Amino acid sequence: MTEHAFTLETLFAPLTPEQFFDAHWERQHWYLSRGQTGYYEGLISARDLEGFISQSDLRYPAIQLAKGGGYYPPEAYTRDLKFGDETFHGVPDLQRISAEYRGGATVSLPAMHRTWRPLGLLCSHIEARLDHAVHANVYLTPAHAAGFTPHYDVHEVLVLQIAGRKRWSIYPPPLALPHRTQGFSPQGYQVPAPIAQLELVAGDLLYLPRGYVHSTTTSDSYSVHVTIGIAVYTWVDLVREALQACIANADLRRALPPGFASRGDLKSRLDSTLRDVLAGLGSAVDVQQCVDAFTRRVRSGRGRQPDAFRADVTVIDPDMRLQTPAQHLYRLSREGEQTMLEFNGHRYALPATVVSTVHAMVQQRQFRTSSLPADLDAEARLTLTRYLYDIGFLTAAAS
Asked: Which CATH number is correct for 321-396, 3.30.420.60, 3.40.50.1820, 3.90.930.40, 3.30.460.80?
C-alpha cells in the first residue's frame, strides 16, 4: 500500500465505517483478526521504527521509556550534548534505551503522527471524517514483559498491531464514557474478572471505547503497535459553549442574593431560579450562534497535515498544472460579506473579487492559471495562485 492508502475504510475492512459506528462506537470493544501479517506495512513497520529510533535524533518527550505502570524520568535515558557553543538537550542515549528495553521497558513514541508522514496523513483523514481530534502513539515492548498496568483511557482507542504479538486483558468500565477531565485513578480500584482476553498478532485491530480498563503483556514475542487515539468532543463541551455565551445576558450577570451560601432560607430560591434559568437557556442565548462558534473552533483546531520541505521548488507560472486538495480537507463558507477558506488548521478571509476564481479552481481540481475564467486579469490570477500555493492549498499536479 502507498502512504495514501490508509483510511477508515481500510482500517475497518471488511466492515464499512458506517457498520462500525452503528455496532461498536462508544458501545463495546471490537477485535478484528485479519490473518494478514503485512497489512500495515504501507503505514509503518518494525524496520521503519528501528531506523527511526536509531537515526532520527529524537529528543525527549518524542521518545519515552515506561515500566511497571510509570514513565522513567528523562535523565535516565537522555543526555545533553555539547557541540561547539551549542548544547543539544534531551538527546536519547541509545545504549541506555537498549539496555532498559532488554530489561522489560516499553519504548513509547508519543504523537508520532507529527513526524511520520503516513501516520500524519491517516490521522488527518480521520479528523476530517469525524471532526474529533486524532493522534497516533507507537509502543515497542520486548518479549516476556508487562506493558502498562490496568487503566482506562479518556479517548477512543484503535490498536493497530504492527509486528509481533501482545496479550490484552479487557475489563468492564468503572465509569461509562468518561469525559477527558475524568482520568483513571488506581486508588481503590479492584481489578475484576476480565470480560475478554485476546492476543493480537500483526495485522490485527482492536477497538476500545473510552472507559474500558485494559492491561497488556507479551509472551515469547516482542510487540510493536500503534494506538490511534480519538479525543472526542462531547455534549458537555457544547453545553459549556452555551453556558459561556450566557455572559452576554445581563440578567444572568446579576449577583446571587446576599448570604446565598450561608442562609438556609435562600436555598429553595437558588434551586427554583436555577431550574428556571436552565429551562430558559434556549431563549437566554443565541443557540445557533453557539453551535456555529463551537464548530468553527473545532475546525480551526484540527491537526495540520504534515509539512514537507522541498528544495526543487518551481516559481509558479501561468501554464503550470496545479491541483486543489481533496474536498474533505478544506471548507469554503460565507460569513457576512466575507468568504472564509478553512484549510490545514487555519482560516483565510478571501476578498470578494477572487471568490469566483477560487470556485473555478476547486470545481476543476486540476487546472492551469492561464485557463481560468477571466474574472481577474492575468496578473491578479497569477498572484492569487501563488498565494494559494504558498499556503499549501495548491500543489503541482502529477504529470
From this structure: 3.90.930.40
Domain boundaries defined on the chain: 8-231, 235-298, 321-396
How far apart are alpha carbons 216 and 206 in whole angstroms?
Answer: 13
What pTM was computed for the model?
0.80
Helices (H), the chain: 8-12, 17-23, 46-55, 94-102, 117-130, 235-245, 267-279, 281-284, 287-300, 355-364, 378-390
Q: How far apart are CA 58 and CA 38, in angstroms?
A: 26
Environment class of residue 173 by beta-carbon count within 10 Å: exposed (0-12), middle (13-18) or buried (19+)? Answer: middle
Question: How high is the pLDDT of residue 1?
Answer: 40
Instruction: Identify the pLDDT of residue 2.
Output: 42
Three cell numbers written together for 348: 483565510
Is the alpha carbon torsion for 236, 114, 59, 223 positive or negative?
Answer: positive
Reference 184, options 162, 208, 168, 160; nearest CA is 208
Provide the pLDDT for residue 300: 74
Q: Which amino acid is at 95?
A: Q
Mean pLDDT of 62-73: 93
Distances, alpha carbon 124 to alpha carbons 63, 119, 324, in Å: 22, 9, 16
Query: Smallest Cα–Cα separation from 329: which of 13, 10, 7, 43?
Result: 7
CA dihedral 58, 62, 63, 69 (to 10 degrees): 170
Identity (one letter) of the amino acid at 290? C
CB proximity list for 367: less than 8 A, separation 6 or greater = 321, 322, 323, 360, 361
Q: Does the N-terminal peptide bond of residue 61 adopt cis geometry, omega within 30 degrees of 0?
A: yes
In the numeric block, the cell 479525543 is attached to 231
* Domain 8-231 of CATH type 2.60.120.650: yes
For 308-353, the pLDDT digits (tens) are: 666 666 788 999 999 999 888 899 998 877 889 998 878 899 998 9
